[in-house]
Design brief:
This protein has about 210 residues and is mainly alpha-helical. It has 9 helices and no strands.
Amino acid sequence: MSSAEGGPSPLRLTRSPRLDNALRLGWESFSRTLAAAGPGEAARWLSARTGDPELADVAESLLASALGSDPDEAADALFGLAELAEETEDDLLADTLWEGVLDLSRRADDGDLMAEATRRLAAVAERNGDPLAAAEFFIEFLNWRRQPEHSSDPEDVEVAFDEIVRLANADGAQHAAAQYAYRQVGFTKLLDADDPRAVESDWESDSLPYETWS
């Protein structure tokens, strides 16, 4: 899903309406349209959208890798494209590309990459005035991490809890903030005790997934 609401102004529309329109529909639709367009056309579209004519050459090689069959190369290339999009302050483009990184990280069960994509997507959502949507990304990460054989850096779990508590308070959901703060205390105790559940699989005694506050 794409959490950026504002999107580009009409002045940022390009001569590739297929790509402009697909971008508004989220990563799944956009990735199919990117593949159909090919790296060359997609790079020219990206250059026109960002107003940077020098971006085309760099973007073409990244897009070729992002659309390739090697999942690790695809993730690295898409990560680079998403960072370029952030530099241009195009929230819709950045949001969609980070959504792609998140999708690849799930397929690869890469907790580090998922945590980074989660932070970037949450930041876009919060910039667009939606703390609940931002928190949902962190909650989704924690629910993924709690599944059997899923692992991540415990620090990423702590950061996710911190952000959920902060965002809940910002959204006026004090009960949810207190609930997640309590859950974090339990996780931190396991981490301090070197319990393996702090690194892999579910640390909760109750397997019910975490939920948002609305």
